[in-house]
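TA notes. Do not distribute before section.
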Amino acid sequence: MKSRPIDPPPTFARPKHPYRIREIAAQSGLSLATVDRVLHRRGGVRAGTVREVEQAIADLDKQRTQLRIAGRTFMVDVIVASPARFTAAVQAALEAELPALRPAVLRCRFHFFDSASPAELLTVLDKVAKAGSHGVILKAPDLPGLVAAVGKLTRQAIPVVTFVTDLPTSARCAYVGIDNRAAGATAAYLMRQWLGASGGDVLVVRGHSSFRGEDEREMGFRAEMRTHDKKRRLLEVVDEEDRAETVHTGTRAVLAVNPEVRAVYSMYAGAGGNAAVVDAFESEQRRYDVFIAHDLDGENTALLRERRLSAVLHHDLRQDLRRACHALLQAQGALPGPARSQPSAVQVITPHNAPAAEF
């Protein structure tokens, strides 16, 4: 009778940790002797028991992190240049997420600008640098002066997370928000599917500012259309004055001389802009087959439910802001790991899956 070879004891990659055997035993629910055998790689221990010890150490690591930030208060400045309808959604989303960040306590100072000049944004960034802060969540245009201001904050150990639209050449520690180039390409893909092989031009509506997010959306949209639907003309309306009336007038002017416009892609967040486009089509007694917009705010939600919009490309604001706060805590050493950019997935919202809340 041949003897069966004895299975080697399960291996345990013993990590460096500061915990006593008694702590690990209490966390895992195992006996002191069992934990001691696992830690010292003695035999007579099942693989499942080894995994229980490993999990107990991982759980103790997490608890240690929580203890490290318990009772600490972090002051965060949220600086957003965007229409009021978007900044209201940002504030509501962040305030909804703050309780989930405990045991850390984050206090936020909000600096919202409906139509800020670069000088105004530089002024508030300078005030933050002088007053001190544990971090900045920033949505601003990609301009050299603002890039330099982010560098100044970083040198003062005030980390900056860019939000929704990036400043990739700056010293920001992370970017959170939608992948804008992918969002633009997604809009083009949906547009082509809906329009099919029939003809027709597309009206592209955008703002006049230097927000990189809009630039990337446009690049993604045009690249996709150029590759797969190059014969279709793309006509542009630019909101030069941040006023819905400008969009209405510009859209009517384009429609008056271009009878083949059948679709609209609106890539910006100007207040009332999408409603102005809808009104312009009605004023010209024209109809469109497809209208794709961005961000599920109150205005776009209403237009979507009325079937004035075909789809809204959206991203989870609460998730984005939660990630932004985590990145700032990581940059401050309060959470383990390096702060990393985390682009959000593009959500396609139709009248059939529109959520009840805006964020």
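Switch to the second chain here.
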Amino acid sequence: MFLNTHFPKAQKYWYQGKFYDWSEGDLHPMMHALHYGTSVFEGIRAYGTPRGTAIFRLPEHIDRMLLSAAVARMKFPYGKDEIIEFIKLTVRENGLESCYIRPLLFFSYGNLGLVPKACPVELAISAWEWGAYLGEKAAGGVSVYIVPWRRVHHTQFNMAAKLGGVYVQSTICGLEARDEGFDEAVFLNFEGRIAEGPGQNIFIVKGGTLITNDRKESVLEGITRTSLLEIARDLGFKTAVGPITKEDLYGAEEAFFCGTAVEIIPIISVTDGSDPAAGKTRHAIGTDKPGPIAQRMIKAYHEAVTGGSPRYEKWLTYVKG
């Protein structure tokens, strides 16, 4: 029996055309994805709006999931429009107003060789109520730790894909950062520049300009990141996309994480642990507390996802049939 202790209000999940009670489960331990991480997934959020529950940038998320599936050489069993309807149905079935949604495509039971030649691709969709990703206190800013392990490089696989197995590195380094007493990890790339967090992109503010990096810096160009670049320009801020050095981060006026799960979380300090032989020095970001640009971006993003800004209505998919 599977309890929903860590998945508040989750009642049912959609799997291969049927709904199952959350407590039910009959997945075989020899499923290929359990052994090799041969899965692709998306993290999507839905929000309560004056017109009912709306999913933020749902078509774009499914486009990326299907791209990821193609990169993983998966022959996916459903088309884009079908998956969108399954997701809307899952949110309705659980009676959720605001929630996190996790569609997962994976190589299932067949053979256990590295090449899943006999393994069908299956789809599962889950949704549950999930609040602040880094905890309620994260709104006051988080302290981050630059881990010694370099981010998977953009020459090693297509960085536009969201592949399950790649996130093992994120899990390990996220745990390491917490063991060191920090809220979250930050990766450098092979070139020694700032890449991203375990599941978040990074923005810094310098001279009033919002700067983020791109896939050439070994990051997944997140959908939230893309949205914030547009929102920032609409607010009248200058934006730039390019490399970010450690020194750029240390000297930034502000910095923040962004992503579907984390939304926008200010970074108020960074400690460099990238060289285990060197000492660890804490660097305060700006005034060591959330800055005004991050606060303004948080407000504008919240308005966009909750239907408070007509300009961004184009990004909302309503779940009512």
